[in-house]
Amino acid sequence: MPPMPSSVSARSAAEVNAEIRDLWQRSGGSLTPQDEAEYQRLLVEWAAAAGGSVRTSV
After folding, report:
1. Quick one: which of 24, 8, 16 has its CA closest to 42?
2. Measured between alpha carbons, how far is 48 from 52 in angstroms, rounded to an integer?
3. Where are the alpha helices (DSSP H) in 1-58?
4. Which of 2, 40, 41, 50 has its CA 20 to 30 A from that of 33?
5. How far from 51 is each of 29, 45, 46, CA to CA, in Å?
6. pLDDT attached to residue 51
7. Residue 42 has pLDDT above 80, yes or no
8. Which DSSP category does 51 fall into?
9. What's 5's DSSP letter?
10. How confident is the model at residue 53 (pLDDT cuts 50, 70, 90)?
11. How far apart are the first and last CA of the chain?
12. Phi, psi for residue 3 in degrees, rounded to 5
């Protein structure tokens, strides 16, 4: 049996997105190094939660 990916999110993409928006609002649009690390973690969680429904523009 293959190992379970550790990046699987228990929260929905919408919940994670709300936390990302809150982080940006609290930071005033300028992330500290600690905020940047949290933002990167949230992006990974959001991408995992969004799964295949994410589309990128070309």
Report:
1. 16
2. 9
3. 13-27, 33-50
4. 50
5. 27, 10, 9
6. 87
7. yes
8. G
9. P
10. low
11. 37
12. -65, 150
